[in-house]
């Protein structure tokens, strides 16, 4: 196993799981998730470290990332894959759904990036990849709440990327098109797209970005798009 260390938030299912699976084959990998049983199962299956972390709780993020760095010295890359789904017209979403979606996709993203950027700047190097959505580029009337919350993350990442001023810290985002994952199933929503990408098809690109070296080409702030399941 290589000496580099990577953290995958939301790494117990979907794209995050596939990213962690690829990383764990070669590198020290830490999977984060908010369901203890899922974290334990994933860590066992991938033979990697697992930590319970709810991104809506900033103290948990600080404790977990701080602990990982204390153990291994440097965190070479972090992937923020955690998110919740909210489909349907806005008027059909309950107040509870609205609150949960904003809490995880907006506040959780801000909390995670807050800690990740501080950590990378203290180290002086490292990569951060945010998993956005092609929906932020192409309006889809059926998912206004989900699109709005993912747009927050994209806007934040773009500003952070421009603020670093160093190729040693790369802040990037990937905007996948529709992917059939448990994101919808967890809230009882049906996956409706007929053309889509599989998580295992998108994961190699996330890993490529995560594993870039400080001397590699300046890519901070660039978007990688996978529209409708196709490049």
Query: Helices and strands: which structural class?
Result: alpha/beta
Q: What top-tier CATH class fits best? A: Alpha Beta
The SSE order reads EHEHEHEHEHEHHE
Roughly how much helix do the residues carry, as a percent range?
A: 40-55%
- As a percent range, the share of strand residues is 15-25%
State the end-to-end distance.
Answer: 32 Å
Number of domains: 1
Unreliable runs: 227-231
- Spatial extent as radius of gyration: 16 Å
* Count of helical stretches: 7
* CATH architecture annotation: 3-Layer(aba) Sandwich
Mean pLDDT: 87
Query: What is the tally of beta strands?
Result: 7
- The 3D shape can be described as globular
CATH superfamily, please?
Answer: NAD(P)-binding Rossmann-like Domain
* Largest sheet geometry: 7 strands, parallel
* Strands in their spatial order, largest beta sheet: 3-2-1-4-5-6-7
CATH topology: Rossmann fold
Characterise this structure.
The chain has 231 residues and is an alpha/beta fold. The protein has one domain: Rossmann fold (3-Layer(aba) Sandwich), CATH 3.40.50.720. The chain has 7 helices and 7 strands. It has helices at 14-24, 36-46, 58-72, 95-123, 144-164, 182-185, 199-210, and strands at residues 2-9, 27-33, 49-52, 77-80, 126-131, 169-175, 223-225. Strand 5 (126-131), helix 5 and strand 6 (169-175) form a beta-alpha-beta unit. Helix 1 (14-24) crosses helix 7, helix 3 (58-72) packs parallel to helix 4 (95-123) and helix 4 (95-123) packs parallel to helix 5. The longest helix is centred in the middle third of the chain and has 29 residues, at 95-123. InterPro entries: KR_dom (IPR057326), NAD(P)-bd_dom_sf (IPR036291), SDR_fam (IPR002347). Its EC number is 1.-.-.-. Keywords: Oxidoreductase. This is SDR family NAD(P)-dependent oxidoreductase. Belongs to the short-chain dehydrogenases/reductases (SDR) family.
């Amino acid at each position: 196993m290589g000496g580099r260390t990577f953290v995958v938030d939301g790494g117990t299912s979907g794209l995050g799981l596939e990213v962690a699976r690829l990383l764990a084959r070669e590198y020290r990998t830490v999977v984060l998730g908010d369901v203890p049983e899922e974290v334990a199962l994933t860590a066992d299956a991938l033979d990697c470290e697992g930590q319970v972390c709810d991104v809506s709780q900033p103290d948990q993020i600080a404790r977990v990332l701080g602990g990982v760095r204390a153990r291994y010295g440097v965190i070479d890359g972090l992937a923020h894959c955690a998110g919740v789904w909210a489909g349907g017209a806005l008027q059909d979403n309950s107040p509870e759904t609205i609150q949960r979606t904003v809490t995880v996709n907006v506040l959780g993203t801000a909390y995670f990036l807050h800690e990740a950027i501080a950590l990378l700047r203290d180290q002086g190097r490292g990569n951060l990849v945010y998993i956005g959505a092609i929906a932020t580029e192409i309006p889809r009337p059926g998912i206004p709440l989900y699109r709005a919350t993912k747009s927050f993350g994209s806007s934040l990442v773009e500003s952070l990327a421009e603020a670093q001023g160093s190729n040693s810290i790369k802040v990037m985002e990937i905007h996948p098109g529709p992917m059939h994952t448990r994101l919808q199933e967890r809230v009882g929503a049906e996956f409706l797209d007929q053309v889509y990408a599989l998580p295992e098809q998108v994961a190699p690109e996330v890993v490529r970005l995560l594993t870039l070296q400080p001397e590699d080409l300046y890519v901070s702030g660039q978007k990688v798009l996978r529209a409708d399941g196709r490049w």
